[in-house]
Structure formats: C-alpha cells, structure tokens
Specification:
Elements lengths: L1 H19 L5 H15 L5 H13 L4 H39 L1 H6 L1 H32 L2 H16 L4 H19 L7
Helix pairs in contact: 1-2, 1-4, 2-4, 2-6, 3-4
Length: about 190
C-alpha cells in the first residue's frame, strides 16, 4: 500500500510539474510526458507511449488532460487518473486565477507582452521536435503503410484542407481493416 501511495504522489508531482512548466498548448506536453515517464522513470516503454498519445489525441478534450488520464490509468488505474488529472489541472487553474485577478496590469505591461511573444517561438520549436520524434519513429519502423498514412495525412491536411477529424477516422478505419485482414485474433490465449 505504501508503494502505491508513493507512486501516486510521484505521479501527482510529475503531472503538476509538467503542467506548470508547459506553455503553448497540449501538443507541447507530449514530448515532456515521454521524457518524464519513458526516459526518466521508465514506467512506460516508448512504443506504449506512442499508443497512449494516439488515444489521448483521438479523444475529445484537451490533449494535456487526456494524456494525464491515459498515463494515470496505465500506471495506477482510477486513483492514478484522479491524481494525474488533479496534477495537470491545478497549475493552469492557479495561474489563470492569478492572471484574472491582475488582468489590467498584465494587459498594459510591455515586458509581459514581449515575454509571451518570445515564448511563441519556443513553443513552435517544441512542436517541431514532437513531430520529428513521432515521424522518425514511424519511418524507422519501415512499415510502408504507416509511412504512407503519415505522408498522406500531412499532405491532405496541409495542402488540401481536409479536416483532421476525417483523417483520424480514416486512419482508425484503415487500422481496423488492416488488423482484420492480418488474421490476428484478440482475446485470451
């Protein structure tokens, strides 16, 4: 019981820390989740982390919260979900409460405005890093179907304006179809 309590406390502190120092949206947190839970703690392997990220991305809601939910559930079940979501929600809640209290002072401060403009560049770099890491893993796998789906999704989204929801649904359908055609059976062995 003590070990589970220690895991939950560490999970809370990790998600709190990641949420407190992640600026620029949910996709930025993906790299940080991987660094913390795969590389630092070795609680999840890299392949499983990619699967958890895919689940978090395809679920409705903010990706940072969805990421905390799937990682928390994987590590500690329902208590892990509650703890990791609390850790992910508290920093923005506290920060937004403080900012809303001092809103007029923040709006007129040129130093704060410059700080936020500088953070945009850093966020862009982190997002490019996430895309590179995830794309490299797919290319390194050598699976031509995965590579084709990745390239087609990029092309259709960027150059043809296809809605990402349709791309996710098409990729899910292709995955189910591929699984069914492979002849693999699920269930107990």
């Amino acid at each position: 019981m003590e070990q589970k309590g220690h895991l939950l406390w560490k999970l809370f502190l990790s998600t709190f820390y990641l949420s407190a120092f992640t600026f620029g949206g949910g996709y930025v947190i993906i790299t940080l989740l991987k660094d913390k839970f795969v590389d630092q703690y070795h609680w999840i392997d890299e392949e499983e982390m990619l699967d958890l990220v895919a689940i978090a991305q395809s679920s409705p809601g903010p990706i940072a919260i969805n990421g905390a939910i799937v990682v928390g559930y994987k590590l500690a079940g329902i208590p892990g979900v509650l703890i990791s979501v609390a850790g992910a929600v508290l920093p923005p809640l506290i920060l937004l409460s403080v900012i809303s209290y001092f809103y007029s002072a923040f709006c007129s401060n040129p130093h704060i405005a410059a700080l936020l403009r500088g953070m945009k560049a850093g966020v862009g770099a982190v997002i490019v890093s996430v895309v590179y890491d995830m794309g490299k893993k797919i290319v390194d796998s050598g699976d031509l179907i995965h590579i084709a789906v990745m390239l087609a999704s990029f092309f259709l989204s960027c150059f043809c304006g296809v809605n990402v929801v349709f791309l996710i649904l098409a990729a899910a359908l292709l995955g189910v179809l591929r699984f069914c055609l492979s002849g693999k059976k699920g269930g107990a062995a």
